[in-house]
Amino acid sequence: MTPQLRAAAALAPVGLEELVARAARQTRIDRKYVLPLAAADRLVAELGRTGGARVLDSAGARDFGYASLYLDTPDLAGYHLAARGRRRRFKVRRRTYLDSGDAYVEVKTRGARGTTVKQRVPDDGDAAGFVEAALAAAGHGAVRSHHLSPVLHTAYRRTTLLLPATDDRVTVDTELTWWLPGAAALTLPGLAVVETKTGSGVSAADRLLWRSGHRPARVSKYGTGLAALRGDLPDNRWWPVLRRHFTALTPCTSSCPADDRIPA
Fold first, then answer.
1. 189-205 mean pLDDT
2. Which residues form the VTC domain (predicted)?
3. What DSSP element (H or E) covers 110?
4. What is the Cβ-side half-sphere exposure of residue 194, based on CA atoms within 13 angstroms?
5. Per-residue pLDDT tens for 115-132?
6. CATH for 6-251?
7. Which of 17, 147, 167, 263 has the fewest CB atoms within 10 Å, i.e. is most exposed?
8. Partners of 149 in the β-ladder
């Protein structure tokens, strides 16, 4: 358990199988918030008190390490589509669950009415066909798997909540770290990225955040992170978050996972 999220220790547990069955929602509406750790902890406590929130638990662990390797074209097509706010945009990444070692290749695109569509397959070293088919179905058929190369690493710890009344999910990411391939890592101390994931409408977590004065932020672990680490890219879409939060990026003082593999 991430020490800063002490409130998660008091919640009832939910297992991974039940969480996936009730709240997988590969097509969903996402809202993201950047909060001080103390505010994120208060949110978790309040969701438990008023909404009966349950926390993903595996053998007593209540937070889990994630690492992602983002892939993009030489001209950073995925980045620029997001930076310009285009309705049709994409992300391709290799996500590793550090505690289990499981890894997946994932493609995220936009669906109707601004929904996020995520597709993934286990990373067996032969995901090229999957990536190209997923991109083509979303209108990005010109992007081929061999065009993609490593662009950005991220790592963080995640606590996942189930809101049982509506089967919505809330994730709280801490110990956020970014690095360019072959470069030193930078971390964002004292902050959490909270993401609400709903089938439609507004979740109980959104309402609590709004009542506390927090509003959704345009933040992307890929887009905002790459803009923060590189000064040569357009960043207007993420400028408020960059100016308010990412000036606090500091060198990583602990070992950071790295993985330069890409879909074959």
1. 91
2. 28-229
3. strand 103-110
4. 27
5. 788 899 999 888 999 999
6. 2.40.320.10
7. 17
8. 72
